Design the sequence.
């Protein structure tokens, strides 16, 4: 795999303002129990030290004597230990699509702009309460991993990675999404949160990789769409080229049959993606380049 | 064959045909350039599927028609000419017909004499009425001569009146016919002439026919010879009780006659063949090859192709090619 130089796509205008107040009202909802490396305030798997009672059970040899619960022991006459739900920090893994198809947008901004905004928003929410955030970029050669970092350095690393832009036109890499997901599965040993930000147009099969990831982690799939991708307007004859494959087509968009068929094919594709995500019990957030993506995202995160 | 025998008045203009491969290359280059002006779109694969694939021949049809039109116009520029057979207005033909006794032989259906008469009719039908036809019939001596005339019925009557009898004096008959043709003039110029000799046997009486043929050749009067009959033919001997006489044709002498005079020799074994030969001769002697310019046809063809190319391009691409 040749490594393309990343470019900042023409027409890029950034994600737009992300108001601090709005960000304050959001939080990452994690359905599964996460288990970070450090003690934190997220309920984790198993039993351990925390604030919430998990269970009281008779003392067994090897238990920590400091955990002996005096009240229960006195009540029953048998030594009991008190065990808590462990509380840990959360590690968030963001998989970000940098393929050339992301540098496309016909409404308010590019898909890559929206993806950038989502990455920053998620990153800022992720570093709260001693959380850590990692970034895996894919679609532009070998997936690049920015390892989990907490606090400000985490967000700075995200910002620096986002500054580099996306892969230039002509870089076609089917299977990049599945590759990135598999790689996250290998490096993220402790249960955490995985956010996949992509347009989900990868024609390669990613369901197995995503399914394996969803076994252990909470997964949020963010799909970035452009309104032109679901329906082409009637603007006469168009010569179009695919940014990834370089495939060229000349179509007469004034023909209703062509427009209808295109809309149908694209609707089927989106429905297929949604169906697969639902089957894998992955939370699916669809954002558009048109309108306020932050509001749409916030509605799902608050 | 004459339909495709095309020559060119100014073949230098055929170089214009080089414009066709040049245009093909230009078109290929154009396609390359078109890639730069395409709009980026992520849904190309789906759109391609939605638009469906146009068969390759349909995509290239307008350009192919345009190139064909260009080729036709380039050919028209070179002034194409077609060789056509046009009826000759002025010509004299002498039919020299043998009616010796050997013509009684029945190896040709129904007999040689009748077959010769029928073939002569076919021959006369082929000729345009402006051509003068004369006839010399002979057996022992040239006994009937009709100077060339436009009245073909009269000639037919003279031929029909023959009765088979006597010997074969081919040389004398040719001389008579030659003399007759030499006298044919029109406004001081000698009319182009030819002779058709029908004989079925060796010369038995009179002068050497090959010598006469040489004279005819000098006068540029070709003699087309037809040898009639089969090799084993016989006729009843006029003497009572005597054995039948063999009457084989003499194709060798006739061939010499044809060669000496610049004509052609034919051999007819039966009625059908004889008629065919006479028909061929009729169309050959009655017509002349002439170069006709067919530029207009090519130009019209080119224009129609051009219109077709325009229509096809409008239908498929919404613009001219």
Sequence:
């Amino acid at each position: 795999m040749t490594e393309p130089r990343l470019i900042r796509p023409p027409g890029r205008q950034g994600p737009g303002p992300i108001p601090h107040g709005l960000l304050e009202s959001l939080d990452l909802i994690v359905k599964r129990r996460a288990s970070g490396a450090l003690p934190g305030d997220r309920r984790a798997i198993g039993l351990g030290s925390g604030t919430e009672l998990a269970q009281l059970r008779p003392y067994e040899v090897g238990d920590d004597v400091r955990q002996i619960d005096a009240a229960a022991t006195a009540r029953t006459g048998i030594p009991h230990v008190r065990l808590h739900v462990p509380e840990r920090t959360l590690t968030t893994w963001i998989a970000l699509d940098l393929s050339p198809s992301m540098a496309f947008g016909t409404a308010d901004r590019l898909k890559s702009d929206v993806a950038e905004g989502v990455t920053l928003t998620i990153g800022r929410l992720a570093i709260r309460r001693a959380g850590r955030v990692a970034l895996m970029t894919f679609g532009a050669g070998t997936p690049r991993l920015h390892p989990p970092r907490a606090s400000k350095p985490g967000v700075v690393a995200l910002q620096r990675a986002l500054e580099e832009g996306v892969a230039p036109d002509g870089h076609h890499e089917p299977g990049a999404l599945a590759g990135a997901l598999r790689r996250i599965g290998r490096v993220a040993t402790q249960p955490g949160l995985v956010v996949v930000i992509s347009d989900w147009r990868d024609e390669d099969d990613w369901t197995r990789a995503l399914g394996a990831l969803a076994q252990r982690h909470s997964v949020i799939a963010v799909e970035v769409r452009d309104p032109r991708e679901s329906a082409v307007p009637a603007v006469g004859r168009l010569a179009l080229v695919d940014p990834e494959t370089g495939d060229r087509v000349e179509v007469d968009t004034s023909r209703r049959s062509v427009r209808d068929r295109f809309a149908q094919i694209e609707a089927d594709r989106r429905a297929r993606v949604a169906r697969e995500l639902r089957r894998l019990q992955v939370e699916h957030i669809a954002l558009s380049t048109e309108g306020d993506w932050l509001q749409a995202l916030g509605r799902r995160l608050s | 064959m004459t339909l495709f025998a095309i020559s060119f008045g100014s073949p230098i203009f055929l170089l214009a045909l080089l414009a066709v491969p040049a245009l093909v290359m230009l078109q290929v280059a154009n396609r390359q350039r078109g890639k730069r002006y395409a709009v980026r779109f992520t849904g190309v694969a789906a759109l391609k599927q939605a638009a469906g694939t146009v068969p390759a021949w349909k995509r290239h049809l307008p350009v192919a028609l345009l190139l064909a039109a260009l080729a036709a116009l380039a050919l028209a520029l070179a002034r194409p000419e077609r060789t056509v057979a046009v009826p000759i207005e002025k010509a004299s033909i002498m039919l020299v017909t043998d009616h010796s006794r050997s013509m009684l032989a029945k190896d040709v259906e129904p007999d040689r004499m009748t077959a010769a008469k029928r073939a002569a009719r076919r021959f006369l039908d082929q000729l345009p009425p402006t051509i003068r036809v004369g006839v010399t019939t002979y057996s022992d001596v040239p006994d009937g001569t009709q100077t060339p005339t436009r009245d073909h019925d009269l000639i037919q009557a003279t031929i029909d009146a023959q009765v088979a009898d006597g010997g074969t004096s081919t040389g004398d008959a040719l001389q008579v016919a030659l003399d007759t043709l030499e006298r044919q003039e029109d406004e001081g110029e000698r009319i182009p002439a030819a002779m058709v000799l029908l004989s079925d046997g060796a010369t038995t009486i009179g002068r050497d026919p090959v010598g006469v043929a040489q004279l005819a050749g000098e006068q540029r009067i070709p003699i087309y010879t037809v040898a009639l009959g089969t090799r084993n033919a016989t006729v009843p001997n006029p003497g009572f009780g005597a054995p039948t006489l063999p009457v084989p044709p003499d194709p060798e002498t006739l061939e010499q006659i044809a060669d000496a005079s610049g004509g052609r020799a034919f051999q007819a074994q039966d009625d059908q063949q004889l008629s065919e030969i006479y028909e061929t001769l009729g169309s050959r002697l009655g017509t002349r090859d002439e170069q006709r310019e067919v530029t207009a046809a090519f130009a019209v063809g080119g224009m129609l192709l051009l219109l077709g190319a325009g229509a096809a391009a409008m239908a498929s691409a919404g613009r001219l090619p």
